[in-house]
Amino acid sequence: MRAKLIIHGGFFSESLTNQEIKLAKQEALSEIVQKSYIHLKTHTALQTSVFAVSLLEDCPLFNAGLGSQIQSDGKIRLSASLMDGKSQKFSGVINIEDVKNAIQVAEKLMCEEDRVLSGSGAHEYARQNGFEHFNPETAQRRKEYEEKLSASIGLGTVGCVALDNDGNIAAATSTGGKGFEIPGRVSDSATVAGNFANGYAGISCTGVGEDIVSAGLSVKIVTRVTDGMSLQKACRKSFEEMKSYDGFAGIIGIRSDGEMYHCDSHPYMVWASYDKQLSVFV
Questions:
Q1: How many structural domains comprise the chain?
Q2: pLDDT (tens digit per residue) in 122-168
Q3: Of 264, 272, 37, nearest to 156 (Cα)?
Q4: Following DSSP, what letter does each residue of 2-52 receive, concatenated?
Q5: 4, 85, 231, 272: which could join 197 in a potential S-S bond, CB 3.0 to 4.6 Å?
């Protein structure tokens, strides 16, 4: 089995993104997917998914970790989840504050009996397990918040799906939210609607969380692949079903036979993959 990797950086608004930022995103995705593919050669799909998403969280161009949106009360809250297709374990954090890499807290929870934590419980768990205080706010996000912008250059989430040399699949997703939301809102990113994997396929989603949850998108696609559909057909059928409510979503995925696929209901999802060669779209 040849290792494969695909990542995404959410959506961006074409009208609000200048050429300089587009090039920066392209370079960032290219660098991250190549570093992650090298990592995948000597690590599991699960470990590499965390590695890749951590790099995306550390890049302020994307809406996760350091680039996260500010909520309506002026605070940043992060959500992230991780799923191991081999063990079928899912872990995540919802609306956690003051950490650098939410996906790494989700990874730590993989060994716990209680594997999805929210709010203050997630925060306390992070502190007890050595995750130091970190303020992910950037000057750009503060400016957008103060101007009450309805959109920005880093909409959506970040994610990774990896297939390792042993045929194992893992998916990881992280988000800084949609910006200006009601505190306490739960997006798709820390649920099986937005992040799911088993022995047959793995999916990471981006877009409008409520639309993705309504569709049960990730788990629906993976279930269809498990029942015998190709990844492409499963995605197309699932996206067709969202048209009745104009669902806004994008996905990246890998099937156990090596099939990689990405699609979106609206243009301008940014992604990169690495198989025999690098592919980047932005």
A1: 1
A2: 999 999 999 999 999 999 888 877 876 544 444 569 999 999 999 99
A3: 264
A4: --EEEEEEEE--GGG--HHHHHHHHHHHHHHHHHHHHHHTTS-HHHHHHHH
A5: 85
Cα 239 to chain centroid, rounded = 18
CATH number of the domain residue 231 falls in: 3.60.20.30
Out of 17, 157, 173, 175, the active site residue is 157
pLDDT in tens, 178-234: 888 889 999 899 999 999 999 999 999 999 999 999 999 999 999 999 999 999 999
Burial of 14 (0-12, 13-18, 19+ CB in 10 A): exposed
> Amino acid identity, residue 105?
V
* Phi, psi dihedrals of residue 237, rounded to the nearest 5°: -65, -40
Q: Answer yes or no: pTM beyond 0.85.
A: yes
The residue to which tokens 């067709």 are assigned: 240
Range of the domain at 110: 4-281
